[in-house]
From TrEMBL:
Residues 163-465 form the Cytosol aminopeptidase domain. GO terms for biological process: proteolysis. It comes from the Bacteria. It comes from Algoriphagus alkaliphilus. Keywords: Aminopeptidase, Hydrolase, Manganese, Protease. This is Leucyl aminopeptidase.
């Protein structure tokens, strides 16, 4: 898309979009359309409402946002335009904001509008409508409008990258693909990138990570991205679970396996956030680690009851090979703590069905040993519509992971507290880092939604991490 900004409407666009808040709908319509003749029965600015009409040379689309819309609600309202009404759009669009819009609300609208161009029909013979040449004129009296538009474009691009990484099939999104993706980003942005193959990972002691990938013909990749800024006063570490496909291993999944391309939703969020931080040149230091593997079944697959090593030096009894995400995260967390002096660490993972049993598809399960970090993530998520809610890390839950034969076991094998015991397992590999948070995003990274007929990625974590980081600056 090609954006430009204007303080006034000077265009004869084929489509003019006017977003309207319910509390001042009459005032906005009078200001923008020059008349009061539109009945409130037809349109009053209520949330999720819309109304189209022809006026002189313009086709007008009114978008109702309700009384006090959240960031995510505005984003979704604007995503619907291109996603559900492509026939309204030809060569040019004008988005006409009233003076009542804040910069954050304009950002949410522009991000959502661009997300509407995303389609999962990657392999269809008949492709979805293409919007790369669409001209978009943004009408706003806000200062620094150009930088606001540029910022929204970077956020939308990062979120679409996260969507694509989850939605593309596992024969495309392999560990090697993610490694190459990171290397490509490193060439475009100010990033140092390292990608360990299995031989290098072995020399680094990443034994738990390697055990998970043993059954796959696809070589695992341990991906490290380092972003440094000369004015940084804060060093954040991110770890994202990158299981590009999860059969469950020898504890093979009995249902829903065709959705397991989504088991790298944490990796997608971490990679896309790293892209965004680098493109925006945020004044922080960031180290991101993505252990990328495929959990498959063959003669070399790791076994239930096997005892494996780990980067932290702890032996692990494998109770369930379908509890594989925590094994690769264990090595990712340990490697990060041992090799980098980070102020805080956040990991994101589609880790447990237990988190879905607790929160459904409404929010992520949040665990942290630091109250400020936990509160900061919660607050940031509330601000952008990517919610999380804390669960405890009490020591009694950790005892559930005691093993008779090894230092720790990877699954307690009981039908309760699955998300909590998984978090306690991860904590054992953080080397007592004082500020660590774990986000179990199993219920929010991939699911049913209004923009597709099938389950798709959500890009959960990208807006949350961006807002959290910027709140620290």
């Amino acid at each position: 898309m090609q954006f430009k900004t204007n303080p006034k409407n000077t265009s004869t666009s084929a489509l003019r979009i006017i977003p309207v808040f319910e509390e001042n709908s009459e005032e906005t319509l009078r200001e923008k359309l020059g008349f009061q003749g539109l009945s409130s029965v037809l349109f009053s600015g209520k949330k999720d409402s819309s109304y189209s009409l022809a006026l002189e040379k313009n086709l007008i689309l009114l978008i109702g946002l309700g009384k006090t819309p959240e960031y995510k609600a505005i984003e979704n309202s604007f995503r619907r335009i291109l996603s559900k009404n492509p026939e309204l759009v030809e060569k040019e669009v004008l988005i006409d904001f009233s003076d009542s819009f804040s910069g954050e609300q304009v950002e949410a609208a522009l991000v959502g509008f661009q997300l509407g161009s995303y389609s999962i029909g990657f392999y269809k013979k008949e492709k979805a409508k293409e919007y790369s040449k669409l001209k978009v004129e943004v009408i706003t009296t806000l200062g620094k409008a150009k930088s606001l538009v540029e910022r929204a474009g970077k956020i939308a691009a990062a979120k679409m990258e996260a969507l694509k990484l989850v939605d593309l099939p596992p024969n495309k999104i392999t560990p090697e693909y993610l490694g190459d993706w990171a290397k490509s980003l490193g060439k475009k942005a100010k990033l140092d990138v390292k990608v360990f193959d299995s031989k290098k990972a072995k020399s680094e002691g990443l034994d738990a990570f390697l055990a998970v990938g043993r059954g796959s013909a696809k070589d695992p990749k341990f991906i490290i991205l380092e972003y440094r800024h000369p004015k940084a006063k804060f060093h954040l570490g991110l770890v994202g679970k990158g299981v590009t496909f999860d059969t469950g291993g020898l504890n093979v999944k009995t249902q829903g396996m065709h959705h397991m391309k989504s088991d790298m939703g944490g990796a997608a969020a971490v990679l896309a956030t790293t892209q965004l931080v680098a493109e925006m040149e945020l004044p922080i230091n960031l180290t991101a680690i993505v252990p990328a593997v495929e959990n498959a079944v063959d003669k070399d697959a790791y076994l239930p009851s096997e005892v494996i090593g780990s980067h932290a030096g702890l032996s692990i009894e494998v109770i369930d090979t379908d509890a594989e995400g925590r094994l690769i995260l264990a090595d990712g967390l340990s490697y990060l703590v041992k090799n980098y002096k980070t102020d805080q660490i956040i990991d994101l993972a589609t880790l447990t069905g237990s988190s879905i049993g607790t929160f459904g598809f409404e929010c992520a399960a949040l665990f942290s040993n630091d109250g400020n970090l936990s509160h900061g993530l919660q607050q940031a998520g509330e601000e952008v519509g990517e919610k999380s809610w804390p669960l405890p890390l009490w020591d009694n839950y950790g005892r559930e992971m005691d093993s008779e034969i090894a230092d720790i076991k990877n699954y307690h094998g009981k039908p309760f507290a699955g998300a909590i015991t998984a978090a306690k397992f991860l904590q054992a590999f953080t080397h007592e880092h004082p500020a660590w948070a774990h986000l179990d995003i199993a219920g929010v990274a991939f699911g049913d939604g209004e923009f597709s007929k099938t389950k798709t990625g959500t890009a959960y974590g990208v807006s949350l991490l961006l807002r959290y980081i910027e709140n620290q600056l």
